Amino acid sequence: MNGSLAVSHWVCVSNKRKGGDMSDLRRRAGLLAGAGWLGLSVLPRTVWAQGTAPTRPLLLGVLPITSTRVLLKNYQHVAAYLERRLGVKIELETAPDFQTFHRNTLEGRYDMIVTAPHLGRHAELDAGYAPLARYSALHRTLIVMSRARPVRKADELRGASIAMIDALTLASTEAHAWLRARGLQPGADYSVVYTPTPASAAHALVNGQALLAVSSPQGMLNTPKELRDEIEVFVALPEMPSLLWLGHGRVSKLLPQIKPALLAFAGDTSDGQPFFEATGYQGLREVQLAELQAVDVHLPRLRGMMGSGK
What we know:
Layout (H helix, E strand, L loop, with lengths): L6 H7 L16 E2 L26 E5 L5 H19 L3 E5 L3 H9 L5 E4 L1 H11 L1 E7 L2 E2 L2 E5 L14 E4 L5 H11 L10 E4 L3 H9 L5 E4 L1 H5 L3 H4 L2 E6 L3 E2 L2 E5 L6 H9 L8 H8 L4 E2 L3 H5 L5 H8 L4
Parallel strand pairs: 2-3, 2-4, 8-9, 8-10
Antiparallel strand pairs: 1-3, 4-13, 5-13, 5-14, 6-12, 7-10, 7-11
Helix pairs in contact: 2-10
């Protein structure tokens, strides 16, 4: 176990993201806005092949990993950049929770999505989306414990509770898988306390409502220091890719223009650099097949939760 490692270690190696906490999971669903409402000029740089130029705005769906306000603030840079680069209006949309967002994804609502790797793989295999790029920063699931009530082995969770946020998050999915591999089943061996944010999961841990909590380096970064000081890492799971970009099959003719635009986004001084400074995602790069296949182990559970019985 990695229990001797303080949470501050993972906060230090985390990317220093500037922009709000994961507050208000009951955030409003729906349209955030395209960059056009800001009055930004559109300077097309793509020369579209005959018959491929889009005739309507492209709808970009963004997984609700943080508040709508923060998503809008950050992704307006993406919308503005893509509008200038592609000469196409981009509209942004999110959802009130992961399940609603992923349901919309599977139903084909979005032309492009920014989503978690296991949700993106599901969308690729079952809903006709094609991988475009992934953020360079990595995800890491942390299972943390209270310094006042240290846990020495996973079996101590029997009869106790673990705190985590949305059941569809990669961190929650990986934590359940790690516990199942050690003979622990949710409901039968331990209960789950669902909380709206990593900080509230930390509160549940420190207050004795849960024996363990699930988070990530970024989640810990957005947790108040006084709480972090009372927590240490029980186990750190292997690194995984972070958020993926995918495009729906109905815009397949546009993807050869969209993909290189995304891969060049980090070099854009007016919008790319502010976006990556705010989010800590470190850039965009191509997705490798092995990275997609790494989350296949989670698909049966995910399909079961979404009611898609493939």
